[in-house]
Each structure stands twice: as structure tokens, then as C-alpha cells.
Amino acid sequence: MGHIYREDFLIPFDMADVNHNIKLPKLLSYCLFVSGKQSQELGRSDDYILENFGLLWIITDYEVTIHRLPRFTETITIETEAISYNKFFCYRTFKIYDQNGELLLDVLTYFALMDAKTRKVSPVLPEIVDVYASSFVKKIQRAPKMLPLENAEQRLYHVRYFDIDMNGHVNNSIYLDWMYDVLGYEFLSSHRPAKLQLKYNREVSPGGDISSHFVRDGLTTYHDISSEGHINAQAVIEWLPLEVKE
Question: Which of 117, 127, 150, 213 is most buried (CB neighbours < 10 A)?
């Protein structure tokens, strides 16, 4: 069992949507900020990893279950734990609770280390992850495979300057923004996500264009982001109508 880190967080105005629910891309992004604070406390900040090993953390997959979305002005507790690692991947959970201790979201995140110069995946180094007290497992846990979409609708987007983060690539939350946006205001304002599977395949270059493709099958949507002839990210999202009582 790894070290557990917790933080309370008040949902601000700019993180809420038209229905006063938190924007999921913003929440996932803030969760990464919280895990970064734990890493800094343990002496393994992003700067330390880069300066001493020439490596960057990247995310390869998210698996998210949403029981309820937190709302504007609600105080939530974000609990994170680096649970295990193997030769190439590290697995971290985020659990989001309301003030009554009810579980709102359960997130499993797959991390890998990338060489900052070559942009290639590096093996996980024990001297980086030992401080988290997570378990070493020989078996490589992989997220479910996703196939390319067929007969998909699409929309073109330009990669903007503020889409790029400090690591020099498109921020992880932007991919999910692109996936959401193609579904349109009417659908998004009347539905909320219940489950999300999101896979990052390769980086999007700064300053270029991407195509956001989607296929909708009832309350399930299938997505991919592509650029320069390659699939950069894929997702499957299960939705619920907002009027459904849970």
C-alpha cells in the first residue's frame, strides 16, 4: 500500500459548467496538481526528476467512474495514492469524496516516464518511485484496446498557444475538451458523464491542427483525436441524462 495524500478543495466559478457541475477536464487536471504536491513533499518533484534523470512524467490512460459530479461552491476531498508499478508503468488512484464522505469519482491513472530529449518512454527507475511505498508488480496492466473509428463525424481545431503546457506539449485536459466540444451544447447541457476511458497514443505538435472525430451510439460516445495522419488520443464515454435520479 502506498502513501496516501489528501487535500480539501472548494470548487470555484471557473471550473463549473452551465449546470453548476464541475468540468471534468478541469477536475482531472487539478488532480494531477494534487499528485504533484505529494511528489514535491516526498522530494520527487517534476523539477527534481527532470534535473537528475532527464525524465518527464506522462499519462497514457485514464479509467474514470463518476457517481456524481461535484458542484460549484462544494468542498470536496481529493485522495490520491501511487498504488503499484512495473517496468514501464506506474498506477495511481484518485478518489473524490463529498463532505459526507460519499465517493463521487474513482480515477485510475496510468503514468510512464519519458526522456525529455528523445521523447521516448523510459523504464521506471526504483530510485524515483521508492519514496511512494507503492508495490512492484511484474505483470503489466494494460487498459482495454480501442479501435479506430469508422464513419465518424469530425471537426477541425487549431492547436493554440495556451493549449501547450510547461513540458512543451498539448496539456492532457485539452484532448478531452476537444472530445467534449464536438458533441454540442444541447447534448452536453442535458447529459453528464458516468464512465470515461481515455487513452493517449502520441503527442500533438504545437501550432498544428487536429481533427476531433466521434461516433454516438445511444448514451455512449466514441472519440479519437488525430493529426498528421496519426491517432493521438482515443476515448469511450458513457453518459447519463441529467434528469436521471441516482
Answer: 213
* Interval 97-139: pLDDT, tens: 999 999 999 999 999 999 999 989 999 999 999 999 999 998 8
Q: In the chain, what are the helix, strand and coil shares in percent, each to the nearest 5?
A: 20, 45, 35
Whole-angstrom distance, CA of residue 213 vs CA of residue 231: 10
- Residue 38 to residues 8, 23, 73, 210, 213: CA-CA distances in angstroms? 14, 23, 24, 34, 36
- pTM for the predicted model, two decimal places: 0.94
User: If DSSP codes are grouped into helix, strand and coil, which group holds residue 61?
Assistant: strand
Distance, CA of 62 to CA of 54 (rounded, Å): 25
Exposed / middle / buried, residue 151 (Cβ in 10 Å: 0-12, 13-18, 19+): exposed
Amino acid letter, residue 147: L
| Range 124-137 burial, b when 16+ CB lie within 10 A, else e | beeebbebbebeee
Q: Please write down the long-range contacts of 116-122, taking CB distance under 8 Å and 24 or more positions apart.
A: 116/50, 116/54, 116/55, 116/56, 117/54, 119/203, 121/58, 121/88, 122/55
* Region for 15 from its dihedrals, namely left if φ exceeds 0, alpha if ψ lies in -120 to 50, beta otherwise: alpha
Pick from 67, 79, 76, 66: which is nearest to 197 by CA? 66
Query: What is the residue type of 172?
Result: N
3-state SS, residue 119: coil
Contact 220, 185 (CB under 8 A): no
- Residue 146, classed as helix, strand or coil, is coil
8 A C-beta contact, residue 104 and residue 52 = no
